[in-house]
């Protein structure tokens, strides 16, 4: 059991209470969010699918991120996170989709987009999707990815508690 298991359970319980399935669109986490969810027995009742869209090509082909968005803003951007979440929602049976795109390091960062920068997208059926940005301390790739999973699940729980 991971230290994220209680939070993953809480997110799944929120989905169950709302009567919806969940989907993810993951880049920098490479499927860790969906893995934490599906590690929990019975999660198939609340999880539809997870899209691992590491490359720009996968983002475009699998979840419909626009080439123009990637060209204008880059993969690690508010706009891409929003399109990832909306695309995952549209291409699944889910009522909520969580997306993450960021720079987990150890390289790939810049002054404008440092290692630790992650954009999160949340799309809930019938609502405007929203995005949030975090810059995690550069304490290693594992730390950044785990904090990304934690934050995505927290945003999902918060989104489902708004009513």
UniProtKB/TrEMBL annotation:
CinA C-terminal domain boundaries: 6-155
Signal peptide start and end residues: none
Protein name: CinA family protein
Originating organism: Neoaquamicrobium sediminum
């Amino acid at each position: 059991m991971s230290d994220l298991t209680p939070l993953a359970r809480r997110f799944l319980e929120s989905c169950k209470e709302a009567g919806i399935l969940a989907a993810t669109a993951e880049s920098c986490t490479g499927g860790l969010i969906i893995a934490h969810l599906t590690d929990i027995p019975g999660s198939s009742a609340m999880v539809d699918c997870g899209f691992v869209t590491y490359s720009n090509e996968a983002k475009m082909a699998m979840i419909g991120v626009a080439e123009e968005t990637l060209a204008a803003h880059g993969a690690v951007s508010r706009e891409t996170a929003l399109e990832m979440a909306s695309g995952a929602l549209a291409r699944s049976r889910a009522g909520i989709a969580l997306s993450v795109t960021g720079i987990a390091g150890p390289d790939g960062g810049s002054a404008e987009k440092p290692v630790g920068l992650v954009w999160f997208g949340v799309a809930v059926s019938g609502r405007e999707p929203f995005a949030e940005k975090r810059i995690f301390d550069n304490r290693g790739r594992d730390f950044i990815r785990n904090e990304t999973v934690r934050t995505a699940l927290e945003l999902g729980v918060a989104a489902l508690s708004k009513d």
